Amino acid sequence: MLSRRRLLIAAGTITAGFTLSSSGFANFAPYYAHRANRNPLAASSDPFTLGVASGSPRDDGFVLWTRLAPDPLSTDPQVPGGIARHDHGAGILIDYEIATDPQMRRIVRQGSTLAEADFAYAVHLDIGGLAPARPYWYRFRLGDHETAIGRANTLPQAGRPADSLRLGFTSCANYERGYFSAYRHLADEQPDLVLMLGDYIYEQVEVNRPVLRRHSDHAVPATLDGYRRRYAQYRQDSDLQRLHATAPTLVTWDDHEVENDYAGAWSETLIDPDIFLQRRQAAYQAFYEHMPVRTRPGTMGLRIHDSVMIGDLARISLLDGRQYRSRGACYGAPDRGGGHLVDSITCPELIDPARSMLGFAQEKWLQGKLATSPARWNLLAQNVIMAQLGTEQADGTLTAWTDAWDGYPAARTRLLQQLAGTRNPVVFGGDIHSFWNNDLKLDFRADRAPVIATEFITSSITSDGPPQDNLDGKRADHGHIHFAESRQRGYASVTIEAGRLTTDFRAVSDVTNRAATISTLKSFVIEDGVPGALAA
Predict the structure, then answer these.
(1) Which of 122, 194, 384, 420 yields a CA-CA distance of 20 to 30 A from 411?
(2) Residues sharing a CB contact under 8 Å with residue 200, sequence separation 6 or more, in sequence order
(3) Percent of the chain whose predicted confidence (pLDDT) is above 70
């Protein structure tokens, strides 16, 4: 949370100005012919059906996003979002404004930016040079059409005093399983930042059970066009649009943005990796086209891991636990893709130290960030549960589910060894459709082993949870699990101050009710310098 004093200081340093995007003026010159017709699309068509978003915040700016899509579920690949490429192959210029007040009266930046045809007429406007530690408001315009006014924040400067930070984190929003009322309630809390930790969309479709609302095409996407429509369908949801317009996001993915339980280049369905990588790249491009992220897709990948400093208060390391991970242990032995249960006797690959969840390049990058972090709180925002849920026998035999950190025990040990020398490490995750609070230890078998870090896992926005009896059994068998609840959907709300970090598990009353209410299921507090969380 930004103090009133900081807001006043920041406001006093802002001057009005005009900027183009980082592409530069010369790159825009061919497109200025569009400006004679301020709306080159059909005048009656609203081009901003997918809303706005901000993300990738820094202390001097952020990325602003929108996408032109007058017909967002268009099934013609040559007419993405209802815009014919042969008419606008170079892209379409739209106007933007950034202000220091929600009424958009004190404009500090304005200009034009390109909705790129190659990326389905999406905008990724990278703004810099703003004052730190304050909110801004923004909107886009094309002809007579304007977007809703969005709110973004710049971060406090690294190393400078920061009073507090309010953030939320979310996971697993299956459109077919319920309404996104949890997003609306998180928006009502006016967080400074939202962490979206995977399964933002679901590629699956329900076939043999009833659904509340049906996925586009009633088909599993496998092409860029199919993934675009799936994202566009989600982005039309009013509660999701409201959250994106309220706060900036840091976004990572899990599996359903591509395919259930995929691992790196390996498909759950065991198709040829070369073929699967083409599908994965299509999914990654659609992700980019619908997210306020800074980095563009490469030829066969998209970097999304990131690290941001919030003054002297916190470092958030956003991790990618899918793209670079090693193949799941004993994948395809035989006909076994995706997550499955293995033991280290019949599957020695499970404990092979050459395997990695993050990939060794990302491991090295993270080690450098942790080793040099001056932050009081060091937060890891990632996709899957890190605590041990499998079993370890006295002889060292492990039994593990391969799709979570349990399936990469050597990689987990390396990470926990890094965290052991880090001040106040806290891990956030999702994926498992339930709320968890866990101690993270190098030796999960020993109740008295030192607690290295605290883990909080959020439940799903809508996706069904596992049986509560299973979680109760895990708690009984594992002393490092302090809380596990699968019957409630929702999100986690976190308040970080110099002396403590408070996490509230927030549960919606009913995902099948658009007007669902919200309540706090459980709260936990971590004191500065004291490992482990206590129930509040």
Answers:
(1) 194
(2) 173, 234, 251, 253, 257, 287
(3) 93
